[in-house]
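pasting for ref
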Amino acid sequence: MKRTIWILGTVAFLAAAMGAMPGAASAQAGSSTKGEAALAAIEARSGSMVKGQAEFTVSSGKVTMTVTVTGLTPGSHAIHLHEKGDCSDPEANSAGAHWNPTNAQHGRWGEGSFHRGDIGNLVANAAGEATLTFATDLWTIGGDVGTDVIGRSVVIHDKADDFQTQPTGNAGNRIGCGVIRAR
């Protein structure tokens, strides 16, 4: 009995001591902070002047995407998450189709059928600048393949999303693209 208590006491002491060690604290922090932030640096495609970023953060069980873009023509521009984290093609065709792990029809987010990548439209001001904040509990950062935004791409199009035309919303050329990477 004394031996069991001594072993349990020793294990508890070692566990507490390891938590105070820098290496152990980092390992524990790494597992608890995994999936808290991601970033996509948006670069010009299709001969545009678009540039910006999309930042992804987690709070209260939701992923919030904050997009800031310059170099747009004034007006509405579709923004989607695409299935592949590959912006290497000059027209961003390497990003693949809209991210659609549920095999749904294209549409307006939150209304009937929609892809997980159907975000909506950015509205650029007269100077070609646009910002958008979008939050959802249907995405994760580092979660399972059906919800994880890591390894996808943010794509901005030259036209507005009409929310009806299948499968793309008649959004036109891909004028900006950024791969979503964990931070």
